[in-house]
Design goal:
This is VanZ family protein. Keywords: Membrane, Transmembrane, Transmembrane helix. The chain is mostly helical and 133 residues long. It contains 5 helices and no strands. The two termini are 17 Å apart.
Length: 133
């Protein structure tokens, strides 16, 4: 039962992060601007905060996805080699943006995505070691 719950959570997160990532440029700017304005108590320079949030989103979204995906594979007893799909999507997510109006491919964003994948996997491995799974 835990496997199916994790699978649904992972699929839902993947769908959310892919939808966010593939919004057109204007919607992406509007979303990050609203978030930065909402967090303006933390940083008065909302333009700098918006830029930070746009860059950090890559790593955060991919870290959560990677953690959930690793947990799903582990819980389901699936081959660990399937995890290779996570770094592959870190690249493909950027490569498919060329078809989104106002979006473009960025190697820096691929690197941020990959950093998130590694962070999520490291956190999952640390949790497994802690719980002796």
């Amino acid at each position: 039962m835990a496997f199916y719950g994790l699978l649904a959570l992972t699929a839902g997160w993947f769908t959310l992060m892919t939808w966010l990532s593939h919004q057109d440029g204007e919607h992406t700017r509007r979303t990050s601007r609203r978030l930065a304005e909402g967090l303006s108590a933390l940083e008065h320079d909302t333009r700098a905060l918006e830029l930070f949030l746009r860059r950090a989103a890559h790593g955060v979204l991919f870290a959560v996805f990677s953690f959930l995906y690793a947990a799903t594979l582990h819980t389901g007893g699936l081959p660990a080699g399937l995890f290779a799909l996570a770094p592959a999507w870190a690249w493909a997510d950027e490569a498919t943006k060329r078809w989104c109006r106002g979006r473009h491919f960025s190697w820096a964003d691929v690197a941020r995505n990959l950093a998130g994948v590694l962070l999520g996997l490291a956190l999952f491995a640390a949790l497994c070691a802690l719980l002796a799974l």
